[in-house]
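Tutorial sheet, problem 5. The two components below are modelled jointly, 228 residues in total.
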Amino acid sequence: EAGVTQSPTHLIKTRGQQATLRCSPISGHTSVYWYQQALGLGLQFLLWYDEGEERNRGNFPPRFSGRQFPNYSSELNVNALELEDSALYLCASSRGARIVDGYTFGSGTRLTVV
Amino acid sequence: AQRVTQPEKLLSVFKGAPVELKCNYSYSGSPELFWYVQYSRQRLQLLLRHISRESIKGFTADLNKGETSFHLKKPFAQEEDSAMYYCALSGSRNYGGSQGNLIFGKGTKLSVKP
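Model answer (structure tokens):
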């Protein structure tokens, strides 16, 4: 069974640009979660999608947005990049919105803003 | 507000010594709690869930609702246990049942010395 896959692995952008990160969940998983892992801050919840709908959003500005496609893959968009957006962005998936079984995480996309 | 606190950034023990990684939470409903582990150069993975009352790799964790804690314990640490450990809470209150995104603590780095 293929795990959660994220692309690209690394991304370097200039301040003010836009970044697009992609995530493919495990087959059969319909919920996708995005987290930001910045140095010293742990995992900060960004967004949760289930069945194509945004279910919850963390305490991030509107320039962080995303969507979930009919095949349950997801995209995270970060507009007007700032230096402090540099972080590892993790995607996770779960079977439906039921997380009692926990999430499965991808390896992440390392975003560097220069 | 839902919150997970891991008071120790770093815990260093010798091989064979007991280990206790602390986790306290703030949540007004019935919590669902998890421990995740990230070994060097590997993706974040689920270690155990309170609901299953399981023991994985010799680790156990008991939910103490009175003290709002979910400490992770192992009687005899091994060098291969060295990793980053994250405690996580399900923010399920608004979504019913066992749904909802996970709130993570900032993590504790466990170092087991030979």
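Marking note: Chain A has a mean pLDDT of 93. Full credit if you identified this.
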